[in-house]
Amino acid sequence: MEYEAVIGLEVHTELKTNSKVFCGCTTAFGGEPNTHVCPICLGLPGVLPVLNKRVVEFAIKIGLALNCKIAAFSKFDRKNYYYPDLPKNYQISQYDLPIAAGGYLPIEVNGETKSIGITRVHMEEDAGKLLHSGESISRSPYSLVDYNRTGVPLLEIVSEPDLRTPEEARAYLEKLKAILQYTDVSDCKMEEGSLRCDANVSIRPVGSDKFGTKTEIKNMNSFRALQRALEYEIQRQREVLESGGRIVQETRSWDEAKGITVSMRSKEQAHDYRYFPEPDLVPLVIEREWVEEIRRSLPELPDARKERLIRDYGLPPYDAGVITSSRDLADFFDRTVALHPDAKTVSNWVMGELLRLLNAGNLDITRSLIKPAGLAELLRLMDQGTISGKMAKVIFEEMFSTGKDPGTIVREQGLVQISDEGELAAVVDRVLAGNPGVVEDFRAGKERALGFLVGQVMKETKGKANPGLVNKLLKERLGSN
Amino acid sequence: MDLHYMTAHAIHKLLVAREVSAAEVAEAVLARLEAVEPVVRSFVTTTPELTRAAASRADEAIARGERITPLAGIPMALKDNMCTKGVRTTCSSRMLENFIPPYDATVVVRLAEQGSGLIGKLNMDEFAMGSSTENSRFFNTKNPWDLERVPGGSSGGAVAAVAAGQAVFALGSDTGGSIRQPASFCGVVGLKPTYGLVSRYGLVAFASSLDQIGPVTRDVTDCALVLNAIAGHDPMDSTSAGYQPPDYRECLVPDIKGLRIGIPREYFGQGLDPDVERVVREAIGLMEELGAVVDEVSLPHTEYALPAYYIVAPAEASSNLARYDGVGYGFRVEGATDVVSMYMKTRSEGFGQEVKRRIMLGTYALSSGYYDAYYLKALKVRTLIRGDFDQAFKKFDLLASPTSPTVSFKFGERADNPLAMYLSDLCTIPVNMAGIPAISIPCGFSQGLPVGLQLMGKPFGEETILRAAYAYEQATPWHRRRPSLEVQQ
């Protein structure tokens, strides 16, 4: 039987406000354990939360960017469960009246656009971090708690079960990440845990409109992990059904090393969170004017920007898509084009050399030592014929690793291209005189011999010869024109 | 008159006139505290050094010819559920027996700004759950009027200390009558302010939507002075009102001509001791003589207040008390084998019976499938109760009733019957459910024990309450009566 998957994602993202959601502590990542804490985020007896207004602003921003309806009346609720990283043993979250709901996010997979429903967006506080002395909490003689992260504001963004493949899930998460970055509400660093994702997965026979029994997958810490975990889980469910078994509703954890999902707890063991309205906070009444003010302040979002790159620069949709997948990358592109208006060339360099080196170094564009001015200058030197394309790539790598500007590198390494015909002609003549056999071969019709001769000239000039000029001079002398 | 039995405003006059020094006041009250503590047992912790330090600051200010605040140098005590930086705050629980807060509650900061000196932390029912202070995990506090009887609760230590001369005034907390009922049992003045008038920041939470801190004093004037010190918006408490409180001293005018007082029929029903009723009706009669216009009124949903309260308060408590798990601070059992057993053993041994009963009640009421039937319904009842009061206050400025249906009872009398114990809060609980203010003032005696008159007002109607209470007090001798504690001074 043919099966299709039904996938919904629950994404948690830490908001980059300066202070925590209910107290004045810094949200800065890292820091010595338990240094970014106060009585309030530690949940000491007697403390009370005070809502950080910026968090609401950021939540509204994301709600709008995801085409949601912003609630006029919203409130916080307590989600009660015991865990040592949760100092109050309840999390202040939102239950039945989230700040935003009923939106959608268009994604593109294999050239096709699909709209994914956004069920809700809500605000909550993050928990702390456990450091186990052993492998896990149950296998440790003791565990330590770092509360620095406790109370960092989180948004939970829940999608409708509209995703059908792991690729779609990945595209959704990548698009969501882009929007979170464009709106400047989150750093979205999966490795630091500022973007986290859980998935609900079920499968059903193609054509069925009923949902199968779902499992919830946790602990996927990268885009790749998300895709692999979903591929694994869909296959696992298919095998269970095909062998006559039944899917058990449960929570499963992705084991990155083993490449499998493992059962964590069954539905029967699921928590009863005993939600009730948070009595320490007053309900939120959201003024329409404020929402409109935030709407007006929204930056250009990825889809609009992609359209602009296609329309204004004639970039192929694929290139425009890659460049606008990250706001920082798109900003880099726009700034470079402002200095060097050949957009297609800029796009080739950004998508080619720049992304290659960034990916190889596992770096973010914001950490790149190459700045738009540097790339524009490099392209200008190439246009002027001062350097060859090949030299440009060498210089680019040097710029990437040292941050020097291309003019300096050219000067320091004497990389100026030899475009003086007289100077090159002498070298060409020397090469021809020294390789009579090869010249014979060429004249006998072996076209490839020319390549060897070009190579010899390059070698003599330490790669600095203008390749076009070398070709021209050789051909003139060999009389093949 | 003995210094330790004087009111704050009387002491203030003596200080300003330099007839007595703050140090003398401090020593007198400390001596009294020590002398009667072995029999009354109001205090969990005493802080004589803080009292003396505040006294010497007041004396220095007076010596420099500075104006001092009305509470400067006055020894006061706090119910042991208000956080005091560097001073153990136990909630009379094993769970927090050794907990030393790293911060001060807002009320503590405000009293410190007034120059009032902390003399100690007061015994209470564990986590403020109870009506007799018998639920303290440490010891029983005695009623200074009859040492075989309870002081009431949960602010039993606060009222006993004020009644016995161990502190000039105290702060209590009132979730379902925990200031007013003990105030009536011990013949002192106790005010539960409007929800949101006094900051809860630093008050160890029992039921967040009901808890309020309020003054326990020897007369209405002191009540106004203490309220002046602690009332007003606090940015640290989101539920604190934006209301700008007046100077409550200005309502201390003995004039209630034309004041409309409603007598809620339902508060004079089953369970009301006939002699308590007689005393309370006499008090209301006197107010009528003083010019008040008195009539009966009905608050039809009163009978549902108690059951609804025992859903809402335990539900919030079950969540508020979840943090006492042995992880970060407070009590932790030795010998747990894993995190779950640490939780279970710590909470089983760290909490007393009544606290565990309420945690279970609340957990049940919030459980999936029961929420609508219990918690949601209780919230609806709460709306109806508030509606009852809104209706009544269209016709009346104040409502008057007994504070408690009986006078103080003997130790153990109700300890084994939680329902009987819960019923002692019948007249006080609706006030918390509605969030309105109410005071209990001494209004006479029954069987030689104090009886309290409860005056309930509109939201932020503390001025009217204080004016009426003051007028009544000026016309009666009750607030000057002191228990005859037989102790060696």
Summary keywords:
heterodimer; A: 481 residues; alpha+beta; Arc Repressor Mutant, subunit A; 3 domains; three-stranded antiparallel beta sheet; elongated; B: 489 residues; alpha/beta; Amidase signature (AS) enzymes; 15 helices
As a percent range, the share of helical residues of chain A equals: 25-40%
Q: Poorly predicted ranges of chain B (pLDDT <50, ≥5 residues)?
A: none
Strand order of the largest sheet of chain B: 1-3-2-4-6-5-10-11-9-7-8
CATH architecture of the domain at 3-255 and 461-480 in chain B: Alpha-Beta Complex
Biggest pleated-sheet summary of chain B: 11 strands, mixed
Computed structural class of chain A: alpha+beta
Short account of what is shown:
The complex is a heterodimer of chains A (481) and B (489). Helices cover 40% and strands 20% of the residues of chain A.
Please give a structural write-up.
The complex is a heterodimer of chains A (about 475) and B (about 500). By secondary structure, chain A is α+β, with helices and mostly antiparallel strands. Chain A contains 15 helices and 16 strands. Chain A has helices at about 55-65, 165-180, 225-240, 290-295, 300-315, 315-325, 325-340, 345-360, 370-385, 390-400, 405-415, 420-435, 435-445, 450-460, 465-480; strands spanning about 5-15, 70, 75, 75-80, 90-95, 100-110, 110-125, 130, 145, 155-160, 195-205, 215-220, 250-255, 260-265, 275, 285. In chain A, strands 2-6-7-10-1-11-12-13-14 form a nine-stranded mixed β-sheet. A three-stranded antiparallel β-sheet of chain A has the order 5-4-15, with no helix packed on it. A two-stranded antiparallel sheet of chain A has the order 3-16. In chain A, α2 (about 165-180) packs antiparallel against α3, α5 (about 300-315) crosses α6 and α12 crosses α15. The model of chain A has no long low-confidence stretch (mean pLDDT about 90). Chain B starts with 7 loop residues before the first helix and ends in a 15-residue tail after the last helix. Chain B has helices spanning about 10-15, 20-40, 50-65, 105-115, 155-165, 180-185, 220-230, 275-290, 300-320, 340-350, 355-365, 370-395, 420-425, 430-435, 460-475; strands at about 45, 75-80, 115-120, 170-175, 190, 210-215, 260-265, 295, 400, 440-445, 450-455. In chain B, α2 runs antiparallel to α3, α7 (about 220-230) runs antiparallel to α15 (about 460-475) and α9 (about 300-320) crosses α11 (about 355-365). Helix content of chain B is about 40%, strand content about 15%. Chain B has about 500 residues and is an alpha/beta fold. Chain B has a domain at about 5-255 and about 460-480: Amidase signature (AS) domain (Amidase signature (AS) enzymes, Alpha-Beta Complex). An eleven-stranded mixed β-sheet of chain B has the order 1-3-2-4-6-5-10-11-9-7-8, with helices on both faces. Chains A and B meet through loops of A and α9 of B.
